Amino acid sequence: MSLFIGGSEYDLAGVGWTAVFGPRIDRVVLGPLAVQLAVPVYSYVPQFGDRITHLLPELSLLVSPRIGRVSPYLGLGPGWSFGVTGPSFVDALTLHAELGVTVGLMNSWEVRSELRARAIDPWGGGTTDISGGIGYRF
After folding, report:
1. What would the pLDDT profile of 60-117 be if each residue is shown by its tens digit?
2. CA angle 88-114-57, nearest 5°?
3. 3-state percent breakdown (helix, strand, coil) of the chain, nearest 5
4. CA gyration radius for the chain?
């Protein structure tokens, strides 16, 4: 499990940058294949209106070969955007692709860096997240 924080460029009801953060859980399925559950949270102010906060549970299929302590990965998957605050029309299907690397540290600790592109209400809007985090492998 890891916690991540980063920045997200968005093009929704307005454009800009905002913070993104949340938990991620990865599980190896077979060899270099893994699944990931992530729940990013971000909040932004649209061009017109009040702040909108999204909760974005996502499921990814990852290809992640391990090379010593380093695991580069590429992933794809669906998710859902829940409007936690703001107008309800922000609830929508999401699709994403991710590219990143995880580096194992000592005693099951790890650090990660990731780029994730997301289409919300494909293809009505989108975000691009750049994040980093720290985690513990159980």
Report:
1. 999 999 999 999 999 999 999 988 887 655 688 999 999 999 999 988 999 999 999 9
2. 30
3. 0, 75, 25
4. 15
Tokens representing 38 are 């992530």
> At which residue do the structure tokens 């990731």 appear?
114
| pLDDT tens for each residue of 101-125 | 999 998 899 999 999 999 988 878 8
At residue 90, φ and ψ (nearest 5 deg) are: -80, -5
Name, in order, each residue with C-beta under 8 angstroms of 75's C-beta and a sequence gap of 6 or more: 36, 60, 61, 62, 63, 96, 97, 98, 99
Length of the chain: 138
